[in-house]
Amino acid sequence: MISIKNKQDCSGCEACKNGCPKDCIEMICDKEGFLYPKVNSERCIGCNVCNNICPILNPPNNEIYSHSYAGQIKNEDVRKRSSSGGIFSALAGKIISEGGSVFGAAFDESFYVHHIEVKNTDELDKLRGSKYTQSEIGDTYRQVKEILNDNRKVLFSGTVCQIAGLKKYLGKNYNNLYTVDVLCHGVPSPKLWKKYIAEKEKQYGDAVERISFRHKKYGWKIYSVEFLFKNSTENIVPFGKDPYMRFFLSNISLRPSCHNCRFNKIDRPSDITIGDAWGIDNIHPELDDDKGTSVIIVRGEKGNQLFDAIKDDLIYLEDDVDKLLPPNSGGRKSVKPHYKREKFFKEIDNQNVNDLLKLLKIPLYRKVITKFKAIIRKCVR
Ligand SMILES: Cc1cc2nc3c(=O)[nH]c(=O)nc-3n(C[C@H](O)[C@H](O)[C@H](O)COP(=O)(O)OP(=O)(O)OC[C@H]3O[C@@H](n4cnc5c(N)ncnc54)[C@H](O)[C@@H]3O)c2cc1C
Ligand code: SF4
Ligand code: SF4
Ligand code: SF4
After folding, report:
1. What is the pLDDT of residues 94-111, one digit of tens each?
2. Quick one: DSSP state of residue 296?
3. Which atom from ligand 3 is nearest to the alpha carbon of 12?
4. Kind of pairing between the strands at 113-118 and 101-107
5. Cα dihedral angle (144, 46, 30, 116), rounded to 10 degrees?
6. Which of 71, 209, 296, 365 is the most exposed place for a label (fewest CB within 10 A)?
7. 24 CB under 6 A from ligand 2?
8. Does residue 79 have its Cβ closer than 6 Å to ligand 1?
9. Alpha-carbon distance 255 to 260, whole Å?
10. How is 167-202 classified by DSSP, letter by letter?
11. pLDDT band for position 220 (50/70/90)?
């Protein structure tokens, strides 16, 4: 039966839970707020399915990289409501128009994040937009299998560890399954997210009505976090000033497995990868209007087929993958944890979010060391 000795060895993909024939695996929150499998040993029959389908213990086959593009969906309204260039919506719209289902991350009524199934375009808004916390898979892998066996098409979207989990759970190739992952440098703790929502509701005196992590009021590059409350108050803050985003982007609040991600290579188990085309203004300024441009990495026969099917809906160009997504970008390599990560999670229950910000203050001696290293590097050059 599955047993996690080192937390970096579990991405929380929930394949083991979905695959257990006795339903004796529960996902339990640890002190940091991340889910890990726990086996009910009284009901376990020792079949070992869980170990065999864990994508960290037995990685799935990778699809092989073939083309990379930068692009935007032509529909301006959809692009405005998407985090980057709206490529996800083009892919999802195509599958739905062919009678298929789309799976992805959505907020529930408490603004916690779960994977859900969407069957019509009116509901696609639920999946649109990045939600920067780990999404719970629940029993969606089982739902996907049923739909595939019913000969309907499925587009499954998520982080690449979730795609890896789905592929291992299914255990065989399905011609009617398409997968798209969002470039991902890590997922922040759902516990921190819940705490942040609760503190915001207290501060603004009412429950949350709407949240956007990637509002484009001040543009795509300086994106903002927007909270709208039921009493009609709005709080909209550029990402660099939002405490939750500051924790996320300084790598203090991420899941341990994200610091040793097993799947973030150019060849990976998904058919298509989408992300932000940061830096597009330097290499292809004609594709930058600060309203959102995506990088699109296509793999294998199915990836190419799917991209061909949506390209009339896009403005796009092809370029070298290392130019569009340099090898040191988040999403292509694992990030180091912030040096105060441990302290952060020790203090998370006792301090409010704004007080925790003090952990991000850089002490003078570290500033001096960084400056000194920069001078040495300059001299060497
Ligand atoms: C946790 C996280 C970290 C990311 N890190 C990077 C990064 O380092 N570099 C980069 O270039 N891009 C990153 N992205 C991707 C980027 O934010 C956009 O999601 C991506 O460019 C797609 O944009 P879009 O305009 O095509 O579609 P959108 O409509 O904006 O994206 C919707 C898609 O995102 C998926 N999604 C949203 N939230 C989650 C979640 N919590 N878990 C799994 N899937 C989710 C939905 O299922 C759907 O497929 C990250 C996204 C997430 C969720
Ligand atoms: S060994 Fe089999 S029954 Fe036991 S937890 Fe794993 S999958 Fe479930
Ligand atoms: S299958 Fe997924 S959730 Fe289960 S142990 Fe492996 S990585 Fe963790
Ligand atoms: S960094 Fe890797 S392990 Fe972490 S959520 Fe993203 S894909 Fe999964």
Report:
1. 999 999 999 999 999 999
2. E
3. 3
4. antiparallel
5. 10
6. 365
7. yes
8. no
9. 10
10. HHHH-S--TTEEEEEE--S--B-HHHHHHHHHHHHH
11. very high
Query: pLDDT by residue (tens digit) across 276-310?
Result: 999 999 999 999 999 999 999 999 999 999 999 99
Q: pTM for this one? A: 0.95
Distance 151 CA to ligand 4 centre (A): 30
DSSP notation for 19-87: H-TT--EEEEE-TTS-EEEEE-TTT-----HHHHH-TTTSPPPPBPEEEEEEEEES-HHHHHHSSSS-H
- Domain ranges in the chain are 7-53, 65-187+254-324, 190-252+339-372
Task: Judge whether 263 and 60 are in contact, CB under 8 Å.
Answer: no
pLDDT, tens digit, 9 for 90 and up, residues 112-163? 999 999 999 999 999 999 999 999 999 999 999 999 999 999 999 999 999 9
Residue having the nearest C-alpha atom to atom 3 of ligand 4: 258
155 within ligand 1 shell (Cβ under 6 A): no
CA of 35 to the centre of ligand 3 (A): 10
Q: Is 132 in the pocket of ligand 4 (CB under 6 A)?
A: no
Which of 14, 161, 168, 334 has most ligand 4 atoms within 8 Å of CB, for mutation? 161
